[in-house]
Structure formats: structure tokens, C-alpha cells
Design goal:
The protein has 227 residues and is an alpha/beta fold. 39% of the residues lie in helices and 21% in strands. It has eight helices and eleven strands. The strands form two sheets. Strands 1-2-4-5-6-7-8-9 form an eight-stranded parallel beta barrel, surrounded by eight helices. The chain has a two-stranded antiparallel sheet with strand order 10-11.
């Protein structure tokens, strides 16, 4: 059971997040301006060096080109690669996973009625983790909406999945306990609601600490209840 926090743009934010107990710390690797939280490979390596071994580093690629994705992994050397582009198919994931080993592969899936269960099932044998996130119409990737989705769909994915599932999408210290009790995921993720309000990619240490504490408490309570 893990807590993942996105998205770091500085060493101090990352170190404070690791000190607060985050298991996974996410970085968005992209050209400046693609998204506000994008950082380059050099900055990513510096952050990863600062958080290890307390936390593992997750590098998100927004690319839909598998050679470009793997080149990023070679440059950054994260513990986990996170792919989010809708155009990436299960067969691409299998190829990427083999190419980047021992780096692990996480696939983000946008939770949508009528699509999510089929998509999750198709990725069971080609990735190491699934991340269920909220999707927005017209966006080529899942996540960063700050909004929740239908947790009943996510609960069904968790029940059927043979691989660990991380729940994301609009989670905060206020709702993460309900999310864990409802979905029973392997892990939870926070991005928007642990940022400084109005400053995407700049973490609020108090919000980070509150989210991690609430999530770990809820995981412990649910483990005790179901043991």
C-alpha cells in the first residue's frame, strides 16, 4: 500500500515530500511549456538523487512515441516509468516494458463509462502497475484535472486486476479515506490538491503532510478491518 505524490519541480519540494513519507514521487519530463510542471532530464536526475532511498522516483512521459519514451528513461533512470498518452497500445507497453527493464512500467487509464474495464483488462500482462485517473474530453492523456471520477468503476477494476492499482483523480486529505474505503486500491496519488493553490507544480508542504498522513491512516484502518 503506497502513497504517490505528483509533481515535483524542485529538490526542496521533493525532499520535503520524501521526508513526509511518500513512497513514490512523480516527475513530468517534457519540454518547458508543455505543461507547467514539466522539467528536463538534468533536473529530474538531481531530484531523484535527493529522494533516494527514502522514496522511489516515477517519471511521466506524455509522448506517444515509444522510442522517445525509452530515450527519456535512459536519460533520467527513474524507478518507474509512467505513460499516459491514449495512443499507446498494450503491445507498445509490452515492447517498452521489455526495453526499459528493470525500470518498472505504470500505465495511466482514464476512467470512462464503458471503456475502463476493457482497457484495464487489456493491460494485465504488459505493465507492472495501473493508475486510474480522471479524464477530460479532448485531452490526449489522463490526469491533472483535479476532479474525482466514478469510484465504483475503479473498485471493479481493483477487484478484477491481477496487478497493483493506484487510484488518482481529485484526491485530497479530505476525501482520501473515503476513496480508500470505497475502492480498496494498492495505492493513492495526489497532484492538484497538494499543490500551492494557483501554482501548479509547487507543493504545499502542509497539504502534502496532511494527505500522506490521512492516506496511511486509512490504509491501516482498512487493513485492520479486512484482516
Amino acid at each position: 500500500m503506497v502513497v504517490q505524490i505528483y509533481s515535483m519541480t524542485s529538490v526542496p519540494d521533493a525532499v520535503a515530500t520524501a521526508d513526509a513519507g511518500a513512497d513514490l514521487i512523480g516527475l513530468v519530463i517534457a519540454e518547458p511549456g508543455v505543461v507547467p510542471e514539466a522539467i528536463g532530464a538534468d533536473a529530474a536526475r538531481e531530484i531523484l538523487g535527493a529522494i533516494r532511498p527514502r522514496s522511489r522516483g516515477v517519471a511521466l512521459s506524455l509522448s506517444d512515441d515509444r522510442d522517445e519514451i525509452c530515450a527519456m528513461v535512459d536519460a533520467v533512470r527513474p524507478d518507474v516509468l509512467h505513460v499516459a498518452a491514449r495512443e499507446i497500445e498494450p503491445e507498445d507497453c509490452a515492447w517498452i516494458r521489455s526495453r526499459i527493464a528493470p525500470v518498472m512500467l505504470m500505465r495511466a487509464i482514464a476512467v470512462r463509462a464503458g471503456e475502463t474495464l476493457t482497457e484495464a483488462a487489456a493491460h494485465q500482462n504488459c505493465v507492472d502497475y495501473l493508475m486510474l485517473d480522471s479524464g477530460a474530453k479532448g485531452r490526449p492523456y489522463a490526469g491533472a484535472t483535479g476532479e474525482t471520477h466514478d469510484w465504483s468503476i475503479s473498485r471493479t477494476v481493483v477487484e478484477r486486476s491481477r496487478i497493483p492499482v493506484i487510484l488518482a483523480g481529485g484526491l485530497s486529505a479530505d476525501n482520501v479515506a473515503d476513496a480508500i474505503a470505497t475502492v480498496r486500491p494498492w495505492g493513492v496519488d495526489s497532484f492538484t490538491h497538494t499543490d500551492v493553490p494557483g501554482n501548479r507544480g509547487k507543493k504545499d508542504p502542509a497539504r502534502v503532510r496532511a494527505f500522506i498522513a490521512a492516506a496511511k491512516r486509512a490504509f491501516a484502518e482498512n487493513l485492520k478491518k479486512n484482516s
